[in-house]
Amino acid sequence: MSILVLHGPNLNLLGQREPEIYGSSTLNDIDQALIQLSAELDAKIQPLQSNHEGSLVDAVQSAAKQHQGILINAAAYTHTSVALRDAIASVGLPAVEVHLSNIYKREDFRHHSYIAPVVVGQISGFGADSYTLGLRALVNHIRSQH
Ligand code: DQA
């Protein structure tokens, strides 16, 4: 099983970006933890970070050819992108939405996710663990469907 892991805008700056909110793990640390976990789960991941909405849409559109699911932290596009939401809805792959911070504890504009209605579920607020929890949940979900 292969999972596309999408990281949205500004997540390339993790480790130095507002560490009091997002923690000290770098994006590479997160990807390494996901690679290790995927091996334990007998799965594979392909991580991709982009600051560009269209590149994320392109990656979602291409995902069905090679992947069985999508783990996504759309970052700020969570709160703005109908295009990304429509792409996820269009490909029909199960997706799990993750956030490092608890978006419901923060500014009002972060309380709404355009992505949430088209994913299996959302994990928010556990720092880097949101990703590993999300990967476990997604792999379990996909296996339970077969
Ligand atoms: C985030 C939360 C978003 O509101 C924010 O724009 C991000 C990161 C998180 O992982 O906590 O860039 O998705």
Automatic annotation (TrEMBL):
Its EC number is 4.2.1.10. Pathway: Metabolic intermediate biosynthesis; chorismate biosynthesis; chorismate from D-erythrose 4-phosphate and phosphoenolpyruvate: step 3/7. Keywords: Amino-acid biosynthesis, Aromatic amino acid biosynthesis, Lyase. It catalyses: 3-dehydroquinate = 3-dehydroshikimate + H2O. Gene3D superfamilies: Dehydroquinase, class II. CDD domains: DHQase_II. One of its GO terms (biological process) is quinate catabolic process. Transmembrane segments: none annotated. Coiled coil: none annotated. Substrate binds at residues 73, 79, 86, 100-101, 110. The active site is at 22 (proton acceptor), 99 (proton donor). It is an enzyme of class 4 (lyase). InterPro entries: DHquinase_II, DHquinase_II_CS, DHquinase_II_sf. The record marks 17 as: Transition state stabilizer. GO terms for molecular function: 3-dehydroquinate dehydratase activity. Catalyzes a trans-dehydration via an enolate intermediate. Homododecamer. Belongs to the type-II 3-dehydroquinase family. This is 3-dehydroquinate dehydratase. It comes from Acaryochloris thomasi RCC1774. The gene is yqhS.
